[in-house]
Every structure is written in C-alpha cells, then in structure tokens.
Fold this protein.
Amino acid sequence: MSDQQTWDVAIVGGGIIGLSCAFELARRQYRVVVIERDEPGQHASRVAAGLLGTASLPVGEGDNIFPLKLDSLRRFPEYIAKVESIGRRGAGYRMEGTLWVARDAEEDEQLEALHEKRTQLGLRSVRISGPEIFPVEPELATGLAGGLLVDEDVQVDPRRLLEALKRGVRNVRATLLTRSQAIGGEFDEAAEVWTVHVRGQDVAEEVEPIRANNVLITAGPWCDDIVAARGESRTPLSPTGVGPVKGQLLRMRGPRVIDRVVRTSNVSLAQRRDGELIVASTKEPEAGWNLTPTAEAREELLDRASGLLTRIRELDLEEHSVGLRPAVADHMPIIGPAGRPGLWIATGHFQHGILLAPSTAFWLAQAIESGEVPELLKPYGVDRLGQTQPSMEAAR
C-alpha cells in the first residue's frame, strides 16, 4: 500500500463496531481502511450471544442508553438486509421475540413493573400467567410464576453476522489490514491530516505510515492502550478509563427445545436453527484481562439454566466461550469526536456491542459527513468523563 495515498477514514479496531462503521462509511463512498491487530471480530464480538432488545431487569438498569438501544433495534432490519445482501451471507437473524420468565412471586412483580414501564414508553409487551407459558415454550420447567412476551426483540448469530460483515466490507471496497498494529500517530495541523504508524505482528517488520483525514478508534477495551503515552510520536491526552469486563457463556448442542429467546434477570437462553443453544452469561468486572474459562462459571450458568430448562444437562457442551466486554464506569458507550480535528472514538459498548452497532455506525457516519454531533449521540460524548480525550498512540 502506498504511503502517498490519503484515506478518508482510518479505523483502528476490527470488531463489530469497527466493521459496521467501515461498512456504513464505505457505502457512502468514503475511502476506508480498517487496521486490526489480529483477525476481524476475533474478540468480544465473536463471543457475544446476539440477543437484542431494549428490556432489562431490574427496571431502570441501562435506561441511560435506552434511546440509543431503541434507535438501533429499529435500524436492525435494514442493517441486516444490507449486510446480508452485500456480504452474500446469512446472519442468523430471527424475529421470534423474547419470553421473560419469573421463577417466583418477587420476579413476577419485576416483570409487571417492566411491562408497565414498556407501556408508558409506548412499547408492546404481553403479560402471561405461569400456566400460559407451557403453550408458548412447552419444554420449560413447570411451576414458573409468570412471563412477559416481548415480540419486538430479535436475535442474530454474531459469528455468522461477522462473516457476512467482513465480506460486505470488502465488497464495498473498504480495505482490511489484518495482523497490523497501530503503534503511533500524529496530526499534521498544516495539512490537516493524520498519520497512523502501522506495523505487522513481527516487530522486525517495517513500519508503514497510513495517512487519513479522519481516524476512528474502535478498539474495545484496548482503546486506552492505543492512546497511552508511548514512543516518540504522541500527543499526551488523557485516557478514557475504558477497560475489560470478563464474560463467560456456554454453547450447547442438541435437539430443538426452545423457539424464542428465554430470559430471566440472571440468565438468557437462545437456540439457533442448527441446534446450538446459548447459555449467557457472567459479568466479572474484577477479572481484568483473564481469558481463562472457569469450572465455577460453567456450573453457575448450568444451574441457572436448569431452573428454566430441566433438560439442559442432557445437551452436549460444545464450547465454553470467554470474552472481554469494553466498559467505562457509567456503563455508557463513548461515541463521537475525541478532542482533535478528525479524531473520533467508539468504545465502551459493554454488553450491547452487537445491538448498538447499527446506530453507532449510522450516527458516526452522519457526524463525520456533517462535522456536527447528532443529538442522539450527545449523551455519549467523551466530555461527560471530565477528561481531555485520546490521541492516536501506541497499541498493545
């Protein structure tokens, strides 16, 4: 690649957010290059469950990102249609909805509160009694206290979505630089252009300069490594505070047992059409960068799941998956300009990366085109963190 070429946008990080932004921008005729230190989508995006909706328990948790979640959920049909059409692959997109289940009277009160909250917001949901659960999902345990049907929720298979998205990105003529690390960068104020220094995984490889009018950092929990003060070419700006939250989930396989996503406040189940059943997931903010699957987490997830689906232990355990979700202290994403001309950031999506990909990509593309921050993104700006925000710096 010639170091004389100037890209419209260089994206550092090739997970679901980076790839979705590349896809949206390239469709708008921007010349886009994605710089990914491994293979695209190999981290949290590949491990995600792909269960998409706006509801959460307890009521009120996550409401600070509700408008963005709702906007993105409503964009999903068009997003999927474009990705599947241009990427020429199915993404495992399904619209059977979610059945929230209460195991006791206290949880049933939580579902009633959730139903009332959704009604106030003009969203649809249907309350059902314990006995009415059986016709909906006959394999679920008996004696459940009640349920809530949310038909607008959807699900997607993140691994299939990533394959379609990678093909789609290439088919709209964006460039993917894999196994390439951003090891520094600077902004030329006179030329109003960024130079990102990129090197392959072999430290002996020659460093290649990538010139771009805009740089978008979408490196998940590694964003602060990218903006950390290393090397000679740096602008000393403060980090975001984004870090990893370990999550573990199980991939089981067996005969068809459920049709909808089935959820409680501490476990979610979903079965793909090929028989894979997802049991999701743990949240371990104290685990740091540890990617080791644990027997304790496996048993915890199976115990939670067996309270809903008594046959769960009859299925084969195919994979015990571990991922690191990017999060900041308020569990809101950081999306928008990052304190220097042409510098943008999208990280901290926590457990909503798949869900928020369509809105993040659409509204960031709007911002880059117009130079103005869209109203919907303003609550998620870096300014709320009370810090000067990141520059392009050495990646891990």
Remarks:
- Residues 228-237, 388-396 have pLDDT under 50 and may be disordered.
- The chain has three domains: 1-97+153-242+328-396, 98-151, 244-325.
